[in-house]
Specification:
homodimer; six-stranded parallel beta sheet; four-stranded parallel beta sheet; alpha/beta
């Protein structure tokens, strides 16, 4: 795809954005339901396209976990359709008043949610993200430019064609959902289109993040790595602590909200650790006790362990080695819990819960486009509301500035 | 100032940020009151330093309006002190819950306001902005790096020395307020310190904006130009329309919220315009009727005028030539008013009010660091709340991910 074609794609996205911003909730939900139906009735075509991607990935010796995330099955297609239906049940943020007041001069002031406009989403080779992101952007009144991992190209192409087909058939400009071709050159061009694109959301590895941060002229909300800690306090319920630590490391170790470093208060270390370490061993978890493993994101059955003198040392460690993602304390001591929740800086801070619960659905946001580690605009899981901004609506009766 | 010294300045800002984030409201207010006192008791020193800047600016033939904004007087110092006192009366956003709910699994979820961290503020040669910005950042728990226009260097230096002196005397790390030296080279280095700085807020001319957008690795909230329109609808109260139009252009033409283009419905143009144009003439306002003046920011007693067929044409014009700043419709027709308020995209949309009222104080936010034309994070006047973000606080009883 040539530079001019990429710029044109961004221009078309911008041109389409006013229309999707003004779409009624009912119409958006109807489109989502029709998309769900269209995905299910196109099962054969989708699985055939996906097969091409999977075979290529296998040939190129991608890791099993990578291939698993890339692979579509009839069951996974049904889950995608279900997810679209679930999004129809979420409340539409567009047009909601977030605040209103009257000024002494009699101006009626409201803050009203509006879509961000055009969102560029750069993500891994996961076809389910293509459908989910397109649906969340549609529901929040945004136009989206999708750029999935190149290994999922055939899958993403057929999926986006199906979604665009539904838009077209129902008289809605299909350019509110556009798919970018693979290749880093195209990404570089897109990152310069600040006249047409309002926000870039990159998810992925460090090299992609670095490139996006270096080149983007468009505001970026990063979905960066998670170096998540659990601190087991001296006043913890040790059985609860063990259950949570196992869950946070073992249930799905390749995710950004998995525990990467366990901090244990020395007062209970000899009492707490032997049983946990045995269970970690049974699950095949490697435990690293060297200081050079602090701050590492393993994304695997592997974690760092440090015994600390007390809660203050644990908080110091987290401030130094954490990545602003998810931090949890296990304790029955209310003072310690509140101290940790108040003073630890992360998008989600927790007491007595697994870090794996930092997720839009688990935390009650309905669905999410990812977890922001950028403090600006949205910090933590980003749901529909976080895909909007607010404008001021002012109603006067002739007021002027004195 | 050498590169290493600038980087060290940013590092010190970051190191100080946790402390200011945890400061109690009472202490912050006490510091602000002491700062107000210190400014008044240092009147002589401040005016002497300011005199150096003013003499240099006069020698360099800066415009009278520029020199006026640069000049400090005993009266203006009293206003600065008053503004500090006013900020003590604003409610402290830090620690406020913006939402809370319980998930089906029994997790208690809260969103809690926290400071952004370290804010870099780049602004014009206006010493009052130095004091106001430092105070708003302190009250919202943020560390600030100030970089005022180089023509105000002596004034800014003495003012920031006085503010820092109050911090030091009261046992607070003075590095929460730091002043950068003049020169573009230093700005370039600061824009790369994304490890230490969370947000850059630039205010100023187009060349500065372009440089900041091009070089910053830190998120930027722009306070860009205002190409503000007023549309006088066919159903307007024409007397009200005239009063508002005069106010929006004449009351302070050099500001970003002054009207730059007047759109008039052709149905009432011959009835409305003669009297207004006469009054404009009396005020020395030049009226430009060529299409090449659409979208221009005059910042002077000058404006573009276009007669349009109807409200739809007016909205089309604004979409094409507006700058997302402030847009106002004058009408008694409720349908037209709501159509305009709903569909026009700008940080502030108004009915029957002067664009000059887009201002944090006028709209009831208390005070402001400026008016954001970036849709992300804060769109419109930025008060104390907009200098914070939210984190999720989650309280569990042993919940894990299933």
């Amino acid at each position: 795809m040539k530079e001019a074609a990429i710029v044109m794609l961004a221009k078309r996205a911008k041109a389409a954005s006013a229309k999707v911003a003004a779409l009624d909730s009912k119409i958006k939900n109807l489109l989502l339901l029709k998309m769900a139906k269209a995905l299910l009735s196109s099962e054969k075509k989708i699985l055939e396209a996906n097969r091409l991607d999977v075979i290529a990935a296998q040939k190129n010796n991608f890791a099993p976990a990578f291939i698993d995330r890339l692979t579509l099955t009839p069951k996974r297609l049904r889950e995608m359709a279900k997810s679209l239906k679930a999004i129809t049940r979420l409340s539409d943020p567009v047009g909601k008043k977030t605040a209103h007041w009257k000024t002494p001069a009699g101006l009626g002031v409201e803050k009203v949610r509006i879509p961000l406009g055009v969102i560029g989403m750069i993500y891994e080779s996961r076809p389910d993200v293509t459908v989910d992101t397109a649906a969340l952007c549609l529901k929040s009144g945004n136009t989206v430019i999708l750029r999935g991992g190149s290994e999922a190209w055939h899958s993403n192409k057929i999926l986006s064609d199906i979604l665009r087909g539904v838009l077209k058939k129902n008289g809605v400009n299909p350019d509110i959902i556009q798919l970018m071709p693979p290749g880093h050159a195209a990404v570089k061009i897109i990152l310069e289109q600040d006249k047409y694109i309002d926000l870039i959301i990159p998810r992925g590895g460090e090299s992609l993040m670095k490139m996006v941060r270096g080149l983007s002229k468009i505001p970026v909300i990063r979905h960066d790595k998670g170096v998540c800690h659990i601190f087991v306090d001296r006043d913890a319920d040790l059985k609860m602590a063990e259950t949570i630590c196992l869950n946070a490391k073992v249930q799905r170790p390749g995710t950004c909200n998995a525990m990467e470093c366990l901090l244990v208060d020395q007062k209970i270390a000899t009492q707490f650790l032997p049983s946990l370490l045995k269970k970690f061993k049974n699950f095949g978890v490697k435990v690293r006790r060297s200081s050079k493993d602090w701050g590492k994101e393993f994304l695997d059955l592997e974690l760092a362990l440090r015994v600390v003198p007390n809660i203050d040392a644990a908080m110091d460690h987290i401030q130094k080695y954490g990545s602003l993602h998810t931090e949890s304390i296990i304790t029955q001591n209310k003072k310690h819990a509140e101290k940790f929740l108040k003073n630890v800086l992360a998008s989600v801070v927790m007491v007595n819960a697994s870090t794996r619960l930092n997720d839009g659905f688990q935390l009650g946001l309905g669905s999410e486009v990812g977890i922001s580690t950028t403090k600006l605009h949205a910090f933590g899981p980003m749901g529909l509301e976080e895909l909007t901004t607010t404008k001021f609506v002012v109603r006067g009766q002739g007021q002027i500035r004195r």
